[in-house]
Model the fold of this input.
Amino acid sequence: MKFNGEKIAKYSLMLVAFSALASLLLIAVFILKEGVPFMFKMGLRDFLFSSNWNPQAGKFGIYPMIVASLYVTFGAMIIGAPLGVAGAIFLNEFVPKPVMRVIKPMIELLAGIPSVVFGFLGVMVLAPIIRSTMGGPGLSVLAAAVILGIMVLPTVISISTDAIAAVPNSYREGALALGATRWQSVHMVIIKAARSGIIASIILAMGRALGETMAVIMVAGNTVKIPHAVTDPVRTLTANIALEMANATGLAREALFATGVVLFVVIMILNAIALSAIKSRVHKK
Amino acid sequence: MWNKIQTICVVAGLGTLTLVAGCGKAREGITMAGSTAFLPFAEKLADQYMMTHPEVSITVQGGGSALGIQTTLSGTAQIGMADLVKLPSEADALKSVIVARDGIAIVVNPVNPLTALTMDQIRDIFNGKIRNWKDVGGTDHPIAVVSREAGSGTRSSFEQILGNVALTDNALIQNANGTVRETVAKDANAIGYVSHGLISERIKALAVDGSPCTEEAIMAGAYKLVRPIFLLSKAGARPACNAFLEYILSPDGQELVHKNGLIRAK
Done:
C-alpha cells in the first residue's frame, strides 16, 4: 500500500479549518434562529427601546442595557486607548530594542490573566475606593470602564506596535533629515502613517470590551436602569445573558437569545470596520 | 506495515470501549439537578452515600430550581432539587418530599446600628418606598438594596413570602448567595438577603417581626422567612433512587444537612 502522507495531511488540515468555520456558522444560525423570531414577536421597538425589563411580568425592554454596554465600552476606550497607543509609541520610538523585547511579552502576558481575576481586583480594591471617594455603591460604570480599560491594553498595544513597526524607516529618516525633532516626527509622520493600524487596534479592543462578561458582572452592579452618573450601577448586554440564563425558561430564554443577537450584530459591525481599516493599511503599502 | 499499525489501533480502541462500557454497567447511575442553594448539600450527601454504597454513582448538577423540575419531568435527571415556597403546577406529576428547610436572613453591614425590621419595612425597602436608613430608625444614609437575578430560587421565595414586591430599579443585582454576602460585607449602607447557612461575622442578620434568624426560631415557626427544599422524583423511580432519598431523610442524612447549615425537615 502506498503511503500518501502529503494528501492525508492536506485533507485533515482542511477538515480542521472547515470545522472552525462550520462552528462559527452554526453558532450564528442557532442564535439567529432562537432570537430573531422573539424580536419580531415582541416588536422591535418594544424590545430595543423600552426600559422595562421584568421577565416574570413578560416585559423585555433592553434599552438600559444597550445604553450601559455603550457607556461602559466607550468609557473603557477613553481609558484604554490613549494609554495603549501612547505605550505602543513609547515602546517603538523611545525605548532601546532590547528593553522592548522584555517589556512587550510582559504586556502580552497581561492578556492571559483570566477576566475573573480582574473582576475580583475590581470588587476588592477599586469599588471600595470609588465608594469612599465619589459616593454611590462603588459597583458602577466607572469601575467597569477602568477594569475593562486595563483589560484591553494588550490588544491595543500589541496591534499598535505592529502597525508602528511596519512604518518604513525611510519615513523616520526623512522627517529627521528635514530637521524635525523626534517627537515631531512621531506625531506628524509616524502616527499618520500607522493610523489605520492604530484605529484597527482600538476597534478590536472595543469588541473585546463589549463582549467581556465575567469582570463586568462582578464590578458593574447589574442594576437595570439608565445611568445618570459614572458612579451609577449598570447592567450590560453580556451581563444580562449570563445573569439570567441559569433560570430562564420559555419567553425569558428567547429574550436572552435576542439579547445575544443584538450583541452579535454590534460585534460583527465592529469587526467589519476593523478589518477594512487593516485592509486599507495593507493596500497603501 | 501500515496495515499492521491499523489493526493494532482498531483492536486497542475496541478494547478501551469495552472497558468503559463495562465500568458503566457495574455502577448504577443517579443524576440530581436543580437548586444551586441545595447543591453543596447534595454533593456532600452524595459523597457520603457513595462511600457506603459503592455500587451507586451519583452525579450532582446545578442549573436552578426550574431546571431541576424540567429535567426530572423529562427523565434527564432522576432527582430534581427545588427551593421554592410553592411548587409550580407542572411539578404535580412528580413525587415531592421536603428534605430540609432554609431560612432567608435579611443581612446588613455589621457597622449598621439597626438590629430588627418588620416585614412591612423590608417590603418597603425592597420596593424603593423607604430609601434612607433614618426612616427605619437608623442613621441618615441612603439604603443600597442588593437583590438576586430574576428567576433565582432565593429571590422568588423571598418575594413570595413577603408578597407584593416590585423590586426597586435602583437595586444592585448579584448572581449568587455568596456575592450578595460579599457586597453587603463591603458596603456600610447595603441590605440584602442570603441563605441562613451563609451568615458569618462579616455580615449581620436582622430580626424580622421581632424574632431573630436563628435555628430555634425557624424550627418553632416564629421566623417567617423560611423556604422548604423539595426533592422531586418520578412516581416509578428505581429502587436505588428511592434508597438514596430514604438515606437523606434518615437521621444520618439529616445530621449531615444540619451540620452544614440547613434546618432539618422535621
The mean pLDDT of chain A is 89. Chain A touches chain B at residues 1, 3, 54-56, 123, 127-128, 131, 137-139, 217-218, 221-225, 233, 235, 242-244, 246-249, 252 (CB under 8 Å). Strands of chain A lie at 53-54, 59-60. The longest helix of chain A spans residues 5-42.
